[in-house]
Amino acid sequence: MADIIARLGQLEASASYGLTLPDGRHVFLVRVHDQVSAFVNRCPHQGVPLNLPEGDFLEAGGELIQCGMHGALFLPETGECVFGPCQGRFLEALPISIDAEGNIHLAGE
């Protein structure tokens, strides 16, 4: 199985977590309604990192991913932009798996 990139315990309900993979890619994980998703940390509008000033990736309500630069909003399940300058485009999703111990792995890596 692939290396552990994070642990489920690092993501409380409606939380996000940014990290750098061993290959240098900047990615983030989000957990909304007990569903965990992973994406490359790059807005499809101008290629900038999505982090909000506090280092978070979710808007204040904890329901949508938000670009800290443009305010674009993305669905955490699919990465689709539903509001903002890149509406209809998608974040680059990464396949993940979670084992019985709550370890998060990149699937297929």
Question: If you had to describe this structure to a student in words, what would you say it looks like?
Answer:
The chain has one domain (4-106): Rieske Iron-sulfur Protein. It has 109 residues and is mainly β. The strands form three sheets. A four-stranded antiparallel beta sheet has the order 2-3-4-8, with no helix packed on it. It contains no helices and ten strands. Residues 3-87 form the Rieske domain. Pfam families: Rieske. It comes from Billgrantia tianxiuensis. Keywords: 2Fe-2S, Iron, Iron-sulfur, Metal-binding. InterPro entries: Rieske_2Fe-2S, Rieske_2Fe-2S_sf.
In short:
Residues 3-87 form the Rieske domain. One of its GO terms (molecular function) is 2 iron, 2 sulfur cluster binding. The protein has 109 residues and is mostly beta strands.
Features:
metal-binding, Rieske Iron-sulfur Protein, mainly beta, 10 strands, iron-sulfur
Which structural class is indicated by helix and strand composition?
Answer: mainly beta
Order of helices and strands: EEEEEEEEEE
Total domain units: 1
Read across the widest sheet, the strand sequence of neighbours is 2-3-4-8
Beta percentage is 35-45%
The shape is globular
Mean pLDDT rating? 90
Could you please say which CATH topology applies here?
Rieske Iron-sulfur Protein
State the CATH superfamily name.
Rieske [2Fe-2S] iron-sulphur domain
Summarize the helices and strands and which ones pair or pack.
Layout: E1 4-7, E2 15-20, E3 26-32, E4 35-40, E5 65-66, E6 73-74, E7 81-83, E8 93-94, E9 96-98, E10 103-106
Antiparallel strand pairs: 1-10, 2-3, 3-4, 4-8, 5-6, 6-7, 9-10
